[in-house]
């Protein structure tokens, strides 16, 4: 019977739903994490009795057909790009991006990765790097004798140097935007790679048209809404149970036939 | 003589397709824009003038004649995603360009492709009221979609989503992936889509499926029990025939 397979597909779809939801909950406190959502679609249909086909020689037609569905499939696991809340860290090398844009990171492989996680550190040479030690573009080096660093909303990194009155401009952080950020390929470690679906990166300085601004001393929290996730988890669990019920019902129907004497 | 068997068989067959249908509804309980399908049965009278007993001249079998689509609007769930749209009124559809022609959907889970084109999550272009694809570009910023389907961004009006309705939505053929098509005798015939003036588009929301889990579960129990009782009547008919054969075939007398 089809309903066995359909029920199994339904259970698979709901277990994907639970996977995605628990991934969101697990990353509830991950800096810059964007929540994901599984989207489902009905699978194809078999026409057993096609609407519109003639039902007699006099030309009467079947008004409504019989179409048997063959289950459900996961259509997409979309990423919801909404802004996360900003939390104060007072760390002078932490930045949060408010609005659109990603920081650009040089990977050891030579590729450029993109992130919303603005937790930055200094390496042994005074260069601004991520917490994994990858350089943030453009490479900005903080001199040894700098006493404090200020990053303004347009991404300019200014250092206060002992004995100098004026702040020294060390460089300007650049952001990248994408026409379809939901199409970025997640690499783990809060990093994303450009794909065919995301489109090419457009770079610019924070605060220019179409780009967000940066906030020093803050980090962007994840945009996971716990209440929503838990509700989704309950819905997925119940749907899973009902699909398993449809399998056991089908099984009982089949066993009542195979026990015919 | 075999009528009981045939009648029971026809009932079993329809109960099985009903069960398939229920599990399809349950599998799509969380599918965006899915509409519950219900089975319709009819009796089918077989006539046999030459049958030896009057009671056997007409026997009534059952067949599944059609499906009925429950077109009520499902729950509208807020997603806050700017390109998610839901239709708050029944019997209305967004137009989508597919390789085989225009098809229709109530699944408003839209995104943009790398070219800035508004597409479904399958990558199919969503059409404007002029029948053209809709494009965004980098400078557009915030997208606003109003209740009448018109799309505007920071730099002005971009277009309007095509929302259409049909004389008989039950006529629409499901093609899977949340899409519906219109069956046309000739590919160049108009498909009868009528534009809707005020479709009540809700931005940042999706329409969930309208499957009623309680009635589905009840139906499922009903199907199972009926199936079992039909099977039992098959069993007792079988028993009767066996008895008949052994008694009538007993030649000891």
UniProtKB/TrEMBL annotation, chain A:
| Flagellar basal-body/hook protein C-terminal domain span | 215-260
Q: What is its main location?
A: other
Annotated ranges, domain Flagellar hook protein FlgE/F/G-like D1: 96-158
Q: Which GO terms describe its biological process?
A: bacterial-type flagellum-dependent swarming motility
Which UniProt keywords are present, listed alphabetically?
Bacterial flagellum, Cell projection, Cilium, Flagellum
What is the top-level taxon of the source organism?
Answer: Bacteria
- Using the record's annotation, list all stretches that form the Flagellar basal body rod protein N-terminal domain: 4-34
Where does it localize?
Bacterial flagellum basal body
This protein's GO cellular component annotations are: bacterial-type flagellum basal body, distal rod
Give the gene symbol. flgG
Q: Give the protein name, as stated in the record.
A: Flagellar basal-body rod protein FlgG
As for family, the record states: Belongs to the flagella basal body rod proteins family.
Q: Which PANTHER family match?
A: FLAGELLAR BASAL-BODY ROD PROTEIN FLGG, FLAGELLAR PROTEIN
* Keyword Acetylation carried by entry: no
Q: How does it assemble?
A: The basal body constitutes a major portion of the flagellar organelle and consists of four rings (L,P,S, and M) mounted on a central rod. The rod consists of about 26 subunits of FlgG in the distal portion, and FlgB, FlgC and FlgF are thought to build up the proximal portion of the rod with about 6 subunits each.
Automatic annotation (TrEMBL), chain B:
What SUPFAM superfamilies does the annotation carry? Flagellar hook protein flgE
- Matching Pfam families, A to Z? Flg_bb_rod, Flg_bbr_C, LlgE_F_G_D1
Entry annotated with the keyword Cell membrane: no
Report keywords, A-Z. Answer: Bacterial flagellum, Cell projection, Cilium, Flagellum
Q: Domain Flagellar basal body rod protein N-terminal: where?
A: 6-35
Major subcellular site: other
Q: Mind telling me which GO cellular component terms the entry cites?
A: bacterial-type flagellum basal body, rod
Q: Can you give the residue ranges of the Flagellar basal-body/hook protein C-terminal domain? A: 202-245
Annotated ranges, domain Flagellar hook protein FlgE/F/G-like D1: 93-152
Residue span of region Disordered: 234-253
Subunit-level organization? The basal body constitutes a major portion of the flagellar organelle and consists of five rings (E,L,P,S, and M) mounted on a central rod. The rod consists of about 26 subunits of FlgG in the distal portion, and FlgB, FlgC and FlgF are thought to build up the proximal portion of the rod with about 6 subunits each.
Spell out the family assignment given in the record's similarity comment: Belongs to the flagella basal body rod proteins family.
Q: What is this protein called?
A: Flagellar basal-body rod protein FlgF
Protein species of origin: Thalassospira xiamenensis M-5 = DSM 17429
Q: What is the lineage of its organism?
A: Bacteria, Pseudomonadati, Pseudomonadota, Alphaproteobacteria, Rhodospirillales
């Amino acid at each position: 019977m089809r309903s066995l397979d359909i029920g199994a597909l339904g259970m698979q779809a709901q277990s994907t739903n639970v996977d995605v939801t628990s991934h969101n909950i697990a990353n509830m406190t991950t800096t810059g994490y964007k929540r994901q959502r599984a989207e489902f679609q009905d699978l194809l249909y078999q026409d057993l009795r096609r609407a519109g086909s003639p039902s007699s020689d006099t030309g009467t037609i079947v008004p409504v057909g019989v179409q048997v569905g063959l289950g459900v499939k996961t259509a997409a696991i979309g990423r919801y790009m909404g802004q996360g809340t900003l939390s104060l860290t007072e760390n002078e090398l932490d930045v949060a991006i408010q609005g659109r844009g990603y920081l650009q990171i040089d990977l050891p492989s030579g590729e450029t990765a993109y992130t919303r996680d603005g937790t930055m550190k200094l390496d042994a040479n005074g260069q601004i790097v991520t917490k994994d030690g990858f350089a943030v573009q453009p490479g900005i080096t903080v001199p040894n004798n700098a006493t404090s660093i200020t990053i303004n909303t347009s991404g300019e990194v200014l250092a206060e140097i002992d004995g100098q009155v004026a702040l020294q401009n060390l460089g300007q952080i650049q952001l990248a935007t994408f026409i379809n950020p939901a199409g970025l390929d997640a690499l783990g470690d809060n990093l994303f790679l450009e794909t065919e679906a995301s489109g090419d990166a457009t770079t610019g300085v924070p605060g220019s048209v179409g780009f967000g601004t940066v906030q020093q001393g803050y980090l962007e929290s994840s945009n996971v809404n716990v209440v929503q996730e838990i509700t989704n988890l309950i819905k997925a669990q119940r749907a899973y149970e009902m699909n398993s019920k449809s399998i056991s019902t089908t099984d009982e129907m089949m066993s009542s036939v195979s026990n015919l004497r | 003589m075999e009528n009981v068997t045939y009648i029971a068989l026809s009932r079993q067959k329809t109960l099985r397709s009903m069960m398939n249908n229920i599990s399809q509804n349950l599998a799509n309980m969380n599918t965006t824009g899915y509409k519950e399908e219900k089975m319709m049965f009819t009796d089918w009278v077989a006539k046999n003038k030459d049958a030896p007993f009057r009671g056997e001249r007409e026997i009534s079998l059952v067949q599944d004649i059609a499906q009925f689509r429950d077109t009520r609007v499902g729950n509208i769930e807020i997603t806050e995603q700017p390109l998610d749209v839901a239709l708050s009124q029944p019997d209305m559809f967004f137009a989508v360009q597919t390789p085989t022609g225009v098809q229709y959907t109530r699944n408003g889970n839209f995104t943009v492709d790398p070219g800035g084109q508004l597409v479904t999550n399958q990558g199919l272009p969503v059409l404007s009221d002029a029948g053209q694809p809709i494009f965004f570009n980098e400078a557009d910023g915030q997208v606003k979609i109003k209740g009448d389907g018109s799309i505007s961004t920071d730099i002005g009006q971009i277009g309007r989503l095509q929302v259409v309705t049909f004389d008989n939505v039950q006529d629409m053929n499901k093609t899977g992936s949340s899409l519906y098509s219109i069956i046309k005798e000739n590919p160049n015939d108009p498909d009868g889509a009528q534009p809707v003036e005020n479709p009540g588009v809700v931005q940042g929301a999706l329409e969930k499926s309208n499957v009623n889990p309680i009635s589905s579960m009840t139906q499922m129990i009903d199907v199972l029990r009926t199936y079992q009782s039909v099977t039992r009547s098959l069993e007792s008919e079988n028993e009767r025939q066996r008895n008949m054969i052994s008694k009538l075939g007993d030649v000891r007398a």
